[in-house]
Each structure stands twice: as C-alpha cells, then as structure tokens.
Amino acid sequence: MATKSGNLKLDALTKEFGNSAEKVVAVRELTLTINPGEFVTLLGPSGCGKTTALRMIAGFETPTKGRVLLDGEDLSYATPDRRPMGMVFQSYALFPHMTVFDNVAYGLRVKKLSAGEIKKAVGEVLDSMSLSHLANRAPNQLSGGQQQRVALARAMVVRPKVLLFDEPLSNLDAKLRAQMRVEIRSIQRRLGITSIFVTHDQDEAMSLSDRIVVMRNAVVEQVGTPDEIYRRPSSVFVADFIGRSNFLEVESAARAKAGKAKIVVSGRKIEVAAQSSALSSNKPVLLVRPESITVTAAKGKGTKVGKGEGKVTNVVFYGNHVEYTLETDEGVIIAVESDPLYDDIVPVGKIARYSFPADRAWLLPSDSTHAMKEDRK
Amino acid sequence: MSTKARGGKYDIFTKLALVLVLIIVGFLIVLPLLNILVYSSQPSGSAIVKGSFSDIVTRNIIWNTVKLGLTVAALGTLLGFIMAYTQARVEFRGKKILHIINLVPIISPPFAFATAIIVLFGRSGMITRGIFDWRPTLYGYPGLVLVLTLSFFPIAYMNLLGMLRSLDPALDEAGASLGANKWRIFRTVTLPLLIPGFAGSFLLLFIESIADLANPLIIGGSYTVLASRAYMAINGDYDISLAAGYSLLLLLPALLVFLIQRYWAQKKSVISVTGKPSGRPTVVTSKVARTFLLTVTGLLTGLILLIYATVVLGAFVQIIGVNNEFTLSHFQYLLGGFANGAIKTTTTLALIATPLSGIFGMLIAWLVVRKVRRGSEALDFLGMLGIAVPGTVIGIGYAITYNDPVKIAGVTVFPQVAGGAALIGGSIAIIMVYIIRSSPAGQRSGIAMLQQIDPAIEEASASLGAAGGKTFRLVTLPLISGAFLSGLMYAFAHSMTTLSPIIFLVTPDTSILTQKILAEADQGRYGNVFALCCILIMLIMIIGGLINLLVRRTQVSIDRPMVTGR
C-alpha cells in the first residue's frame, strides 16, 4: 500500500520574507511533481531557497503563495504534526532527555499505539539499522554516525509518505558521509518512500538522486537526472555548479541540423550539440569537462603558443590522475588525464596540445558567464 | 535560519498562553503602574513632578538619588571586575569558596549588611571606636555607599565573570604571538572586549541602588532619596498622590536606564561565544598584579565574612560590642510568639508564589524565544517589568490599585486583594508581588536555556505528530527543567528577602519577616535584627536545599552535541 502513495505536487510554491518595504523572495513559484518512491534532491548554493522550500513542504514555513499537494490532498497550510512526513535534520535534533529507544518510539507514542506495537515496530527498525545494542543509550553517548542513524530510524518508524532530509550528512566526516549515502539510498529504495533531500554538495546529489533540482536565487534553474544535469546543463551556472567546467570561447557558431551547431573553436571546425537558446545568445561558450580533454606534449616547439595549444602553468599529480592548468588563447583550461604514465606528463613551462572529442562538448548561451563563479560556495 | 517559524498563524496553545500572559502581566504590574500615573497627576503629586527641577527640596532628593546611584554603580562595577578578573585569571587556593562568598550577598536579607556595618564601623563601632578610637558618622551618603556597594557588587561580579570566561583564549594567544606583553594584551584586547559588560553592570547597579529602600531607611539618616521619600509620603504624610508623584520620579529614570541596559548595552556585545574555546586562558604571573588583585580580593572577602560573623554573633549575645555575654534570649523572644506568625506566613506565601513565578517566567521565555514573531522584544520587556520597576513603586502602585476592588464601568473585574479588609487578609497581593518580582529571573534563565536548544528538536517533535502543547510538555519543558528549578531556588530566596514592595502591603493578618526586621531595626534592637536575619538565612538554606535536592533528582544532563545548532 505504501508503494503507490506519496505523490507530491508543488504548485507555484512561493515564500517571501520581510514586509512590503523590504521584501526578500526566498522561493519563487516552485512547481514540481515528485512521483511515488522517487528520490529528488534540491541542490544549490547557500541562500538559494532550497531549505526554505523543504521547510514549506514540512510545514515549518507557511507559503506566501502556492500549494503543497500530497496524493491530491492540499496540505499547504496544515501544521507539521498533521502532515504524514518524516524529517531528518542537519543537527539530528535527537531529544537529549530520551534514550535511543524513546526517541524512535516518540512518534508512535504520539500516535497512541499500544506498548506492544511500539516495542515491535521500534525493535524492527533499530534492528534493520543495526542500532539494537544502543537502544538504552542517551543520544550524547553516540557517535555522529550513530546519531544520524537514530534520526533516520525515528523519521522512518512512523511510516511517513514522504521523507525529508535537510543536509543530514553535513556534520559527518567524508568517509562516513559516503557510507551513509549508500545506506540512505538502499533503505529508501527498499521501502519505496518518496524522498526529498536538500544539499549543497554536488557529489551527494549525483550519487543519491533519481532527479536533481538545481536552484539559484529562489528559482529553479534546471530539473533533470544526474546525467542530464552533468552532460546537458541548461546554463553556465548549472554547469559550473555541478562538477568542474571549461568554458571555451567560440570563434563562430552557426545552426546545423536539429540540436546541433557548427562552430569554430581553437582553430578547429566541429559540429557539437547545442542548448536550444545557445545560438540566439550573442556569444555562446563551449562547455568541455576537464576529463574530456587530452593533453600531449607539443614536440619540437619553443615558447610560441599556437592554435589548440597552451602553456602549462601547473601540474598536480594525484596518483590516479594528473591535473593540468593550461593558458590558452581560449582562456585558462583545466584538463584531467586519468591513469597517467610518468613519462607522458608534460612539465610546467612547456607548451602542450589539447584536444577533445566533439561529442563531449556542449554549446551554451553565455549570459553573464563568469560573474556566476562568485555564487559558488 | 530563524529560530522560529516565520509567517503563518499561531496555534491555539500559543494563542491561549499569550492571552494568559498578557492578562497576568496586566494585573500584576501594568495596572498598578497606570495607577501611579493617574494618582501622580492629582494636585499634590503633580506639584512634585512639575517642581522636580524648580523646587529646591525635590531637586535635592533627586540629586541625592542620582549621586548615590552613580557612586555605587562605579564602585560596584570596579570591585566586581577586580573580583571577577582574579577569579578568572589568577591561580590561587580556595577559589571556589571565594566564589561562593562573593555570591552570598545577593540572597542576604535586607538590613543584615546595614546593621552589621553600623555595629562594626559606626560612631560606636567595634572596629572604628573599639580599635582606632575613631567616631565617624556613617549615617547618610558614606554609609549608604559602603552598604550598597557591598550588597550589589556581586551582580557586576557575575556579569563580568561570565564574560571573561567566554572570551576565547586564542585572542590572548594571538596578541602574544604578535609580540604584545600581558599588560598590553590586557589593555588592548581584554578591556575593550569587556566594555559592554562594564556598561551593563554599571547600569544594573545604578537601577538597584536608586531603587533600594531598606538601606536608606536604616542608614540613610537625613540623606533622603526618592524611595525613602515616597515611603514617608505614605507612612508620614498619608498622601497617596504625593507618594505616586515621587514614585513617578523614581520610575522614569529606572525604566529608562533599564531599557538602555537591555536593548542597547547588550547588543553592543561583540563577544562571540564559539562554544569550543580552544586553549587555556592566560594566567596573571606578574608579582605586582597578583599582589594587588589578591589583596583587594582578600580584603573584600574578609569584610563580607566579618559582616556575616557579626550577624551570627550578634544574634547570640546580649548587645554585641557592649555586652558580649552569650544568650538565647533573642531567639526565645522571637520564637516565643513575636515572630512565629511572620515566619509561617512568609514561608507559606513564598512557597505558594515560587512555582507560580517559575512557570510564568518559563512560559514567557518560551513565547519570546520560540513562538512570538512580531513584538517578542515587547513581550520580553513586559515580563521584565517586575524587576525593572523599583519595589517601592510596585508597592505603592499595589496599595493604590488593590485596596479597593478593581471596577470597569461599575463591574468588579478584580477583587480587593490588598489591605486588612481584603480576601485572606491581603495575602493575595503579597503573593502577586512575589510572583512578578521573581519571574523575571526565571524568564532570563529560560531564555538563555532555550536559545541554546536547537529549535530543530522541537520541529522534530512537531513533524512526528505532536501538536504545540504536546511538544511543549514532552520536549521543551523537560529540556529546560534545569533552568526552571534553579529559577525556583532564586524565586524562593528572593521572595523571602524582599522588602520594599511588601512594606506597603502588610496587614495585621499578614505579617512578613522582612517587615519585622525593619520594625526591630527601627527600634535599635539589633540583637533581634541579627536573630531574625539568622532565622531567615536558615529558612532559605533549608528550603532552598530541599528544592536543590529536587533539582538533582529531575535534572536532565544536556551535553554538547545535542544543543549545538549549525
């Protein structure tokens, strides 16, 4: 029965703070349909409105305009206790005066379940999260990862239709974070609970989500699968926020067949995939991810930098990959070579050739390109 | 993120709590204050208010009050700072005991200090005359400054000690690594960071000392201040309007300074409490500085001990300094009938008021921190009025308001609760005063406690299905129970020792211990005064200790990871 419920619709959800004189729009007309069992991440730099959006869904903030619909029921103005949703907080928010067992049992006690039912349900969920041996501990006797698990168990045990996560992993160290990511995703898949996850960490978003909602300055910038967001970002901002990017200056660009453009870049004439409005922008830029760029030494050359070449200004050897910084006529280019052979590494100061396959490039409109970099966290 | 949900409507529990708080504040403090305004506009009162600058007598009283306030505030802040700095930055044995001794004056009964000082340092003082054959006149300004400074410096001490301890030691270390020596760091880092603390302490001490009534009555002599003049207007001139006039003159500066202290000085604080101070605070090692700090600290602590020794000794001898023969006659007299009623009544009324004031203070704290969005500062201020308004003014306001039933358009909305003919002999008015005077302390500690608790904890409860009232009962209240119960301790001690508002409300049926002490001190029967002080201290210690036991049993330990926000 839990599998087919949990259809969440956000309809032009808007939140304004402040009075009429000094109004700040935190979320502007967020419209989104989340399917039952889907895992959706709200991703964006701090202050983009993602947390406010989540808190409106949870009921901690009242929308200024718009609606929150769960399985067709309008919950926009319902108090949090009336919403069949569970929330996992960034600070975990475990009740410090209760044991692990009592924390997890809290929601069931509020629902007035019998002691027997509570014991059974709490026991099961603690078991499934390997927390049983900690049932009688106080929260402050637990490690960060254990507290995180208890918080998740507490939110899940009431069988919510929607699970909400407010940057729940940001207080954990890197290793534990990666481990919890896997754990959260596998539990969520098993139970099929619709989930909304807020984060500013792109790795988290990429590894967890069915779909990612990239937000910026209170509005949705793009909605898509991790692959779409990475390969076909809708704007320079999204490209820059997700992963690392090179934006190459394009010498000329002309329409080719549907979705393609003929361009001249680094002295090469190539045909690349293009975003729909890329060609109407007066100066489109070409997105090429660092791992798509191949760097080879330009043999027998002095210090003159030609087309498709750059001067190596920095080389960092990471073991499994090497990272180059090149100064080129098209701007600074970052390139990553995986599994490098020592002898092939081009040293600092030398001239290198760079190239990339045309099918790895993506033409974007240039709107105020590099000012965006400052938005990054 | 904000600590409370913004926008949207209040739930029903919040609305009820808010209405209840406003009604209680209305009757317990706002209405009596409004009546002070009304009565002070009648002829004799308005003559005083209007003549406050032109009339030489009134002007003198005002100047006396301000002069006393400024002197005590300056000296008390200085002493408090020296004690706090010694406590925080000098290594020596007996630190903890010293700390407790420094705090004791806060809950000491009125008159204990004044009478002991007279006995020790007065015209026939055991020390002044007995040792140095010197016969100084203590009555008036010098005696008041001495007694009030000793009574109130602990406020500055606590304030500044808290600030000193929250200073990040890394600041000192940064200064040292940049080449500054300790004296330079003290001048350029420590002192500037403490300026808001100095300002806050100064203003608090100013309010406390201009509001004090007990000491001016005993040791003031012909040095009249506004509080004692207002008292005389009731007990000598029998002119309510006149009393209201003086009350208004006292109320205005007190409220003004209180507002400055709360909403300006505190916001100026630049100290950021990181929660994880790194390193250890630097310790004073300079011989000169150590000697100076320890000498001042030692002298002051010695003086406090001497005063308490005098109180205890004085209770058990015939006439201390004159006839030092051991006797139990004071206690026999007091417990043989003279004070029995007062002991019983005072303790009963204080015990009734204590939990009520605790709950009331907590409720306001919760509303201020978590619930009320617009106007939370105003609500906080209303709750603090009970301590911001001088006790004398509250007492006179109550006497005006509650010696008759309160009527609106001929309908009684509040019965007569003060005066001999009132319900239960006027006990209700006294309980009301106890509540409104003590709840601000609970409110303050509740606010501090709540601000430390991550609001997400309450949100977690709501999202698990617990509505407003349920969350407050199951989560919020247990978490703030520590602050709640320590608030109760204070409320009880404070109620037992409060005098200035009570003087105006005692009736033959409700005699109160502090008022008995005043009567005995007035008659110069110091033996009885000391014995009564001892009884009062014993009562506070025994009952306070019981409350403390209760605290230990129910207190929840809240440790680091739980209360941190982001």
Description:
The complex is a heterodimer of chains A (377) and B (566). Chain A has 377 residues and is of the alpha+beta class. Chain A folds into 2 domains: 8-231, Rossmann fold (3-Layer(aba) Sandwich); 246-375, Nucleic acid-binding proteins (OB fold (Dihydrolipoamide Acetyltransferase, E2P), Beta Barrel). Helices cover 22% and strands 33% of the residues of chain A. Chain A is globular and about 80 Å long. The relative contact order of chain A is 0.12. With 566 residues, chain B is mainly alpha-helical. Chain B folds into 2 domains: 7-35 and 328-566, Orthogonal Bundle (MetI-like fold); 41-271 and 282-324, MetI-like fold. Helices cover 71% and strands 2% of the residues of chain B. Chain B has helices spanning 12-40, 43-50, 56-89, 95-103, 112-121, 141-166, 169-177, 182-211, 214-219, 226-235, 240-265, 287-316, 329-338, 340-371, 376-388, 391-402, 427-452, 455-463, 468-479, 481-497, 513-522, 526-554, 560-563, and strands at 317-319, 323-326, 406-408, 411-414. Chain B has a two-stranded antiparallel sheet. Mean pLDDT of chain B is 84; it is low at 1-7, 272-277 and 555-566. The A-B interface holds A 15, 17, 51, 55, 58-62, 64, 77, 79-81, 83, 85-87, 89-91, 93-97, 106-107, 110-111, 139-140, 144, 147, 151, 154-155, 158, 164 and B 1, 5-9, 11, 454, 456-457, 459-468, 470, 474-475, 478-479, 556-566.
